[in-house]
UniProtKB/TrEMBL annotation, chain A:
Residues 110-149 form the PaaD zinc beta ribbon domain. It comes from Sulfobacillus harzensis. This is Phenylacetate-CoA oxygenase subunit PaaJ. Pfam families: FeS_assembly_P, Zn_ribbon_PaaD. Residues 3-73 form the MIP18 family-like domain.
TrEMBL record, chain B:
It comes from Sulfobacillus harzensis. InterPro entries: Aromatic_CoA_ox/epox, Ferritin-like, Ferritin-like_SF, PaaA_PaaC, PaaC. It comes from the Bacteria. Pfam families: PaaA_PaaC. The gene is paaC. This is Phenylacetate-CoA oxygenase subunit PaaC. Gene3D superfamilies: 1.20.1260.10. GO terms for cellular component: cytosol. GO terms for biological process: phenylacetate catabolic process.
């Protein structure tokens, strides 16, 4: 078993608040060590106060334990490396858009409507349904939408 | 500079005490302001603010949870116990942060909350938190340096929110301006212990756990003065009736803690 096998399992783990994107594409996997006896994964939270982080940690742990029953599995969560939005992969950005969340831009207000692509959007609220998002209104297609906050 | 891990600090009693004292200040500040923030849920002036304060409260308490975890790692006890079971006199938060959201302040029976006061207080907390974390990015204690870098990147959203409100209140009309002035006057009656690090200041500086305490304080006052100057709001001298960094508090803190930990105290061994 190698690190790629571990990543393949982690690609099946999702943030329960953003079902469309797995934690690998979200950039939450900081480090993976795999040997014949031990799998050791270090995750980093997107937002420190994110209430989903311990759920994600537990799900990752149980998925890995099920996939590799003969080795010891440990999943740590720490703040090394300071997660930022550049860690979201191209595939992750596309998946966010597909689920109606604008991927993070370079700074606040740098967003395109995930429905029609227009950049004519007004920020309605810096804060939204979860820590990681702000609320916008698209002046072109008249849909409200959420956008990932740039960090 | 050689950075310390938790195991290295545990073997240095001269560093352990000042470091944990500082971590308690960080944790207690964020826990109690987060507690006050969440009392606005269902009561905020409009629905966007309900959402905003929901997020801000969650993030403050989430930041506190990480600081408490760091204290647990240093052998100070379980993080949940540290958050919920310590007495008011053991708490190191700045006194201003524990005060209720307004007069007649019981959440359930008389929530006559004061929005202006809530925003001004939170702004001052955000400015100090950012000045403090900026300095702590270079802390010799590696887990704290890493956490500071990360948490700082999130704090700017809180501050931007409060600044937007303060600008709006300063410009809107004479009533909103007077309310902003009154809230500012009230905040400065308590502000003194906020931009401070308590009795361990010299040790923290000397050990490199918190280098540049004076610079952080100066950054706080410079930024506050610039902002109040821009709003053309007079800011009085800051008074310090009590020093929360030394465990001095108003009875409001004990009251808040008793509500905050009510469920936890029913069964501290319960698994969540």
């Amino acid at each position: 078993m190698g690190e790629e096998d571990v990543y393949r399992v982690l690609e099946q783990v999702h943030d329960p608040e953003i079902r469309a994107v797995n934690i690998v594409d979200l950039g939450m996997v900081w480090d993976v060590k795999a040997s014949d006896h031990v799998v050791h994964v270090t995750l980093i939270p997107t937002f420190v106060g994110c209430s989903a982080q311990t759920i994600i940690q537990r799900v990752a742990e149980s998925r890995l334990a099920a996939a590799f029953p003969d080795v010891r599995v440990a999943v740590d969560l720490n703040l090394s490396g300071s997660w930022h939005t550049d860690r979201i992969s191209e595939r992750g950005r596309e998946a966010l858009k597909q689920s109606g969340i604008a991927p993070p831009g370079k700074d606040l207000g740098d967003v395109a409507c995930p429905f029609c692509g227009s950049r004519d959007a007004a920020m309605e609220n810096l804060f939204a349904s979860t820590s990681c998002r702000s609320l916008y209104y698209c002046r072109a297609c008249h849909n409200p939408f959420e956008a990932f906050k740039p960090l | 500079m050689e950075r310390w891990t938790s195991d290295e600090v545990k073997n240095r009693p001269e560093a352990l005490k000042p470091l944990t004292d500082l971590l308690f200040q960080l944790a207690d500040d964020d826990l109690v302001i987060g507690y006050r923030d969440q009392e606005w849920l269902g009561l905020a002036p409009h629905i966007e603010e309900d959402v905003a304060f929901g997020s801000i409260a969650q993030e403050e308490i989430g930041h506190a949870a990480w600081y408490f975890r760091m204290l647990e790692e240093l052998g100070m006890g379980r993080a949940d116990d540290l958050a919920s079971l310590r007495e008011a006199r053991e708490r190191k938060n700045a006194v201003m942060l524990e005060l209720p959201n307004g007069e007649g302040a019981d959440y359930l029976t008389a929530p006559h909350f004061d929005w202006d006061w809530t925003i001004v207080r939170h702004y001052l907390h955000d400015v100090w938190e950012m000045a403090r974390l900026e300095a702590l990015k270079t802390s010799r204690y590696l887990p704290l340096a890493e956490a500071s870098e990360k948490i700082l990147s999130e704090k700017r959203y809180h501050r931007a929110h409060q600044e937007l409100w303060m600008r709006t209140m300063a410009r809107h009309d004479s009533v909103s301006r007077q309310k902003l002035e009154a809230a500012t006057a009230k905040a400065f009656q308590w502000l003194g212990d906020l931009p401070s690090v308590g009795p361990a200041e010299t040790a923290l500086e000397h050990l490199g756990i918190f280098s540049g305490v004076d610079e952080a304080k100066r950054a706080f006052w410079d930024q506050v003065d610039t902002f109040f100057g821009e709003l053309r709001i007079h800011r009085p001298e800051a008074a310090k009736p009590l020093d929360g960094r030394q465990g001095q508090h108003t009875p409001e803190l004990a009251r808040a803690l008793s509500t905050l930990s009510e469920v936890y105290r029913l069964d501290p061994t319960a698994k969540w």
